[in-house]
Each structure stands twice: as structure tokens, then as C-alpha cells.
Design goal:
The protein is of the alpha/beta class. It has 12 helices and 19 strands. The strands form 4 sheets. Strands 4, 6, 7, 10, 11, 18 and 19 form a 7-stranded mixed beta sheet that branches. α6 links the parallel β12 and β13. α5 packs across α11.
Length: 358
């Protein structure tokens, strides 16, 4: 079986190998033939060590495909079912799940420490317990979420992470109010999805902030009312809010410097939503007086901040109704053999989402 493998954390390129085997099939597990997978910035963060992940590993966690085989005890899936790969499944029994905060369930993270693949040289992990840069993957049954037959695999793959994260940040976590002002810092696939979510909620002004001109242009197509490079954000703040600050600011980069910028551009009493996944040693500094005096809400948003399966269903309904544009997010397509080209597209900011066709 073919898969793209990162041998050591910190390497910039993946090796596309033909001697990889999907491992771990058994009771409660399913084997999936991956048909399409998106490249998410979290994959790069795992490769360079920003996000913890044992190596060697197969990156990829935003995928879709069809079930090849189901293990003993799996009753809700059968061979031939079309599924989205969910990297953060809910166990349904832990305290977070019982509280209704299924996005905080740790069951999925526990899978990250169990090898999903093997090679003649030893075990290989799958990023976030999945590893969709491979022709096949074996996962817990809860990681395979059925989708209707009319949803293409490439669209389904995007729903598996980036779209759910961005839309959910606006719809669930922030609950953006109609008529409000919004700024989104970082306009890749997740940021664009947050823009679409803010538009759906009726935001009056949506300012997209990104250093890459093509992403700013894309943001305007997806619902932003204006788009500026980072150095022009102060001017936009003055023009849109008379200098007060935005009602909602979404940080979709995952760095303390942009989170601080987001905080400073949020109005007093407004809401900062932290969507980007950053490093454990990157600290955001706030003083105790400003926390008290400004009364700004700081809301982290994990995987869109809501029930994942319901979020998938909502996104499909919005897509069918033409309320969100998912096709337009896919700006590049490459075969698995050209995965390193996709990585370059992500690093340079030329792609919103690259679909790897497997």
C-alpha cells in the first residue's frame, strides 16, 4: 500500500512509500479506502514539532473514503459505506461527553499513541490517530462518520476538519450576532470558513486580514466586506469601528503574536476567538489590569466548539442549499505522489485547500 511518511520530526518533505500496511484491524475497528484528503496546516505543525505527534508517522486527518471492512461488533457501518474520517470522535461516556461538550472528549487523542501502520522496519503512527495520506487506514468505528451518496469525497474531506472548525468557530463558539463587526486574522481554508460562518450569522462588516494577496482576494469572494494586509489592520479598525475595535476577532494562525494583535483589535466587552492551534511553549501575555478593565471574552474554539457529527450534518445541509461554498475552497489538486508540492502550496500561502486525490 502507498502512503506518505514523515520519518523524523522536523523534516520538510514526506517520503511516498509502497511498503506501508494499515495495521490494527479487529473488533470495533473499520478499514477505509481513502479517496480524497485535504492538507490542513495542522499537518505542517505536526511535521515541524509544533503539535506533539510521535514519529515516524503518516500525516493527514482531513479525509473521506469508503468502508472496505468492518470488525466484530461494528453494526452501524458496512462495506461500501461512504464516510468522513473524524479525528476527534466522541466516546459518549466521559465527563466531557456527558456534559454535552463532545469536542473536548480525549478518546481521539488517545489513538494518536497507537500505531496505525507498519513497515518492514517497524511501526508507523497516524497523525491524530488517523493518517489519511495513505491509500487505506484502519480506525475506530467512531472515527468513520457516514455521509450521503450525493456528497463528493473531496467536499466530504474538507468537512472532516477545516470547514467544521472555521464554521463552528463563528456559529457555535462566538455565536456571532447579526449586524456586528468581525475581523478574521489568517485566511486559509479555516479562516475562509470562519468568514462564511460570520456571513451566515448576519455580520455587517467582515474584515479579512492576511499577508497573501490571493487569500485576501479569495476572502472577498467568500463574504468579507474588505480585506487588508496585517499592516493595514489599524486603519481598517479606525474606518469600520471608529477606533473602538471589532465586536468579534478570530485568530486563525495559532501564534501568540497574532493572538495579541487580535486582542488589541477587539473592542472592550467584545470577543476574541482563538481558532489556530499553536505550540505549547508559545505564551500569550496579558496583564491583570487589562483583563479586568477591558472585560473582553477570550474563547478558544476546539474543532468548531460543538458536536462534531451534528456539525457535519449542518454543513452538508448548508452546502446543499447553496449557503456555503465548499467547492471554491479547493484551489489545487494533486495526486499522492506529488504530496510535497501540496506542502509547498500550503507553506507559501498559494492554496486555500489542496485536495490530495488518492
Amino acid at each position: 500500500m502507498r502512503a506518505a511518511v514523515l520519518q523524523e520530526t522536523g523534516q520538510e518533505k514526506l517520503e511516498v512509500l509502497d511498503d506501508v500496511e494499515a495495521a490494527g484491524f479487529g473488533p470495533g475497528r473499520v478499514r477505509i479506502r481513502v479517496r480524497a484528503t485535504g492538507l490542513c496546516h495542522s499537518d505542517l505543525s505536526a511535521m515541524n514539532g509544533v503539535l506533539p505527534q510521535p514519529a515516524p508517522f503518516v500525516p493527514g486527518h482531513e479525509g473521506a473514503g469508503e468502508v472496505l471492512e468492518v470488525g466484530e461488533g461494528v453494526t452501524r457501518l458496512k462495506p461500501g459505506d461512504r464516510v468522513v474520517v473524524c479525528w476527534l470522535p466522541a466516546c459518549g461516556a466521559c465527563p466531557a461527553c456527558r456534559r454535552g461538550q463532545t469536542e473536548l472528549c480525549l478518546a481521539g487523542f488517545m489513538n494518536a499513541g497507537t500505531p496505525n501502520f507498519r513497515r518492514p522496519g517497524g511501526d508507523v503512527f497516524g497523525f491524530a490517530g488517523t493518517g489519511t495520506f495513505a491509500e487505506e487506514v484502519v480506525v475506530d468505528a467512531g472515527c468513520a462518520v457516514p455521509i450521503p451518496d450525493d456528497v463528493p469525497f473531496d467536499i466530504a474531506a474538507l468537512i472532516g476538519c477545516g470547514v467544521t472548525t472555521g464554521l463552528g468557530a463563528a456559529l457555535n463558539t462566538a455565536d456571532v450576532q447579526a449586524g456586528s463587526s468581525v475581523a478574521v486574522i489568517g485566511c486559509g481554508g479555516v479562516g475562509i470558513s470562519a468568514i462564511q460562518g460570520a456571513r451566515l450569522k448576519g455580520a455587517a462588516e467582515i474584515v479579512a486580514v492576511d499577508p497573501v494577496a490571493s487569500r485576501r482576494e479569495a476572502a472577498l469572494r467568500f463574504g468579507a466586506t474588505r480585506a487588508v494586509p496585517p499592516e493595514e489592520l489599524p486603519g481598517a479598525k479606525q474606518e469600520v469601528t471608529a477606533g473602538e475595535g471589532f465586536d468579534y476577532v478570530f485568530e486563525v494562525v495559532g501564534r501568540s503574536v497574532t493572538a495579541r494583535t487580535a486582542y488589541e483589535n477587539t473592542r472592550r466587552g467584545g470577543t476574541l476567538v482563538v481558532v489556530g492551534a499553536g505550540a505549547m511553549d508559545d505564551f500569550l501575555q496579558l496583564n491583570m489590569f487589562e483583563l479586568f478593565f477591558d472585560e473582553k471574552r477570550i474563547l478558544p474554539s476546539m474543532y468548531g466548539g460543538g458536536d462534531v457529527v451534528r456539525s457535519y450534518e449542518r454543513t452538508i445541509a448548508l452546502w446543499r442549499a447553496g449557503r456555503v461554498d465548499l467547492e471554491g475552497l479547493i484551489t489545487h489538486r494533486v495526486p499522492l505522489a506529488e504530496i510535497n508540492e501540496a506542502l509547498d502550496q500550503m507553506r507559501t500561502g498559494t492554496a486555500l485547500r489542496t485536495c490530495i486525490e488518492i
